[in-house]
């Protein structure tokens, strides 16, 4: 008989990455069912009832299209409805995912100008103003912005961006990537003047990967009608205003995912979206207090986004120095049964593999005791790895959590 080493990782594992997030038992129970009738009855009625509840989360009274895809698919879905081959867009990048959306546009034959603001901060609105003002012929059909970049964990001010666009009088559509932020960070589609917002099921919406959402305004719907070619699969018009049920998905409905989404939206609306945002911010603030303590007394850990008002409540990117980031991730997974996010998009010439970064995901189905499990696991890893760090992380987080209750 082979003798195995004792491990403390046995039991339920915990995924503390920025998506897919922890799936509530309530969601998984609803998904665990036989396939439903896709022509009439309960599934059809339930699905049409999902649409207004999805709009409530995005804070819009306009339109929503559901796709069987992930966040990258919603990039393409949005682009397919706002630009023809040869059109141009302006992309504002504050991390890996802004550049990803730009690359998607290029591969579709769309001209792309990128304003790169690095991966440690937010927009320079004066540079954006200058770029829009210089576009005298209004070549840009849309400005593509990332509300929260999942790699850098910066949260960009979309309302302020709308203000700059209005001040310059530029007619471009404003499109926001909300894959990481929807259902976690405050987002007000209509009040902020957003024309297109994209999201996916596997983060703040607490459903397994597989559903993508594109919310769009009347202005965006009118603009779409001017396009020369619209992909039949990505076309949002029949999905938002179907004559028959199958048009919602351009084919067979993702039945089990829809039941899971129903349960997830019920959970969000029972809690109240304002309370959901507050819960995320309170828990994130507790984590930030712990990270601040770990970075003291010779510790090397620091948050990638230094200004608190620019941080996302859904994800926190952390620098600790190579190779400690990778070592810490591997140690907590092997010994604590917890997985942290890799330093995606945070590589540097000195650290080409991003071994000095890792990310905390704290989105969707998360409460205080889950957060303290994460903090305690990282504290244990720092001790086991003999990594220099300040003390008092748990106490600092506890004080923040207690004051937010």
Describe this structure in words.
It contains 13 helices and 12 strands. With 405 residues, it is α/β, with parallel strands linked by helices. It folds into 2 domains: 246 residues, Aspartate Aminotransferase, domain 2 (3-Layer(aba) Sandwich), CATH 3.40.640.10; 133 residues, Aspartate Aminotransferase, domain 1, CATH 3.90.1150. Strand 5, helix 6 and strand 6 form a beta-alpha-beta unit.
- CATH topology name of the largest domain, in short, is Aspartate Aminotransferase, domain 2
- What is the number of beta strands? 12
Question: What's the helix-strand series?
Answer: EHHEHEHEHEHEEEHHHHEEHEEHH
Q: Please describe the biggest sheet, giving its number of strands, its sense, and whether it closes into a barrel.
A: 7 strands, mixed
Percent range of helical residues: 25-40%
Whole-angstrom Rg: 22 Å
Full CATH superfamily name of the largest domain: Type I PLP-dependent aspartate aminotransferase-like (Major domain)
- Beta-strand share of residues: 15-25%
Number of helical runs?
13
Distance between the termini: 52 Å
CATH architecture of the largest domain, by name, is 3-Layer(aba) Sandwich
Could you report the average pLDDT, rounded to the nearest whole number? 97
- Supply the helix-strand structural class: alpha/beta
